[in-house]
Each structure stands twice: as C-alpha cells, then as structure tokens.
Amino acid sequence: MFISKIKGEVMKARIKWVENVSFLGESGTGHTVLMDGPEDHGGRNIGMRPMETLLIGMGGCASFDVVSILKKSRQQVTDCVAEIEAERADEVPSVFTKIHLHFKVTGTNLKEAQVKRAVELSAEKYCSASIMLGKAGVEITHDYEVIEG
C-alpha cells in the first residue's frame, strides 16, 4: 500500500494557554501552531483560529493523498494546490455545514482520468479527516482542474 497508515495509532497533542484567547498547540511530533481569536473576542489576531487549523488539516490530508496516488500512478506532478471554501452554522456550536475542495493539479502530460481517480480515492477511501467530517454530517464536495506545465 502506498499510503502509510498505522491501525490503532495513538496520536498525542498538547495545547498550552498563552494569554487571553491565545493557545500554542504542539503535536506529538514536536511541531507547533499558534492559535488566537479575533480582537473582538479578546485576541490579538496573531494566529490561526482553531477551526481554520481543522480546515487546513483536512486540506493537507486530502492533498497528501492526491499527490501520493498520482505519484504511485507514475504521473509527473509538479504542483498541487487545494483551495478550500467552508460554510459554518449560524448557531452555536458553529460547526462546518459544507466544505468544498478544489484541486489545481499541475504537471507534465497528466492524465485527467488519473487526477479524477486520485481525488475520488482520497474523498472516498483515504482522507481520514474529510471522511470523519462527512460522517459527522458535513456536506463535502470536490472538484479539480488539470494544468499543463
């Protein structure tokens, strides 16, 4: 299998309060991200919002899959950009209700059928983050464009 998944893997993270509504998140692998709120909620707007990090994580997960699948299919990928747009509920909790991922895949002689297959496999089989959110009731859609270059 080309995507490394460890069944039953235990992941850990640590979130440390910095001040007001600023928090430093540290992954089990030692990487950090600063999260903060908007000024009207006591923040200084110096970091991403927690829901933004969730959205970016989902996009990273899906992009990892798409690129890995295309490389395994011997496609000459030179770039992959996922543009994500999400809608949230008006009431609390302000959960995501809809998320759309648009992949811009660039490469040399890319086969559109392979790009389509990679996006579908990520959405339906491999992307743990988007599949989990979909099971929670978020409407998730995907599309793509192939760019020669």
TrEMBL record:
This is OsmC family protein. Pfam families: OsmC (PF02566). It comes from Litoribrevibacter albus. InterPro entries: KH_dom-like_a/b, OsmC/Ohr_fam, OsmC/Ohrsf.
